[in-house]
Amino acid sequence: MRTVLIIGASKGIGLETVRLALKAGHSVRALSRSASAIRLHDPKLEKLDGDALDRDTIERALLGVDAVIQTLGVSPAPELIFSGTRLFSDATRLLVNAMEASGVRRLICVTGFGAGDSRGRGGLLYNAAFCVFLGRVYADKDVQERIIRRSRLDWTIVRPTILTNEPRTGAYRVLVDPHEGKPDGRPRPQALRIHRCRLRRLALFHGDGDVTIAC
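and the corresponding C-alpha cells:
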C-alpha cells in the first residue's frame, strides 16, 4: 500500500478519489484550503489545510508520500469566461519543481477533454460551447500539461469529458489517442460523459505506477 497526496481533495473528483484510496487501503494526505471540513474519518486519512499555490505547503505535503494525484478545479464564475485563470499552470509549475527536488516521481494529473491535443475533438456543439465558456480556462490547462510533459516525472494526464452524477454503468473506456472514436476522429456522443466515481477509479488505478498513459 502507498501514501498518496491528493491535491484538491475537498470536493468533486478529489473527494471521490480520497474515498476510493482509503477503501483500497492506501494512506491518504488530503490537501485543500478546506481539508479540515472533509466529512470523512479514517486513521489513514490526514487532512491538510493549505493553498496549492504556497510553496511551503506543497513541500510539507510531499514529505513521505509515494505518489501525487492533482485534481484542481475552479468555481464557475462569469469573470473566468473573459479573464481566464493561471491557477492550473502556476500550481503545477510549483508542484513539479517541488516533486523533482524531493524525489517524489509519480504524478497523476486530472485536466479535461479539450486540453492539449484533444482540443476540437468533441463535435460541433461541444466545441462551440467549449470555445465560448471554457476557452480561456483551458488555455491555462494547455500550459499545465506542457509543464508536466516537459518534467522528469513519471506522469499520467487524465482528461475526463463531461462529469455527471447519473447512475453508474459499471464500465468506462480509456482512449490513449484523442483521435480514436468515430471515423472523423471525434469521440462518440456517449463517450462525452463519465460518472465521477468512474473517473476516481481510473485515476487510482493508474496511481499504482505500473501503467503510464496520456488519456
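(Above: one complete record from the training split.) The longest strand covers residues 27-32.
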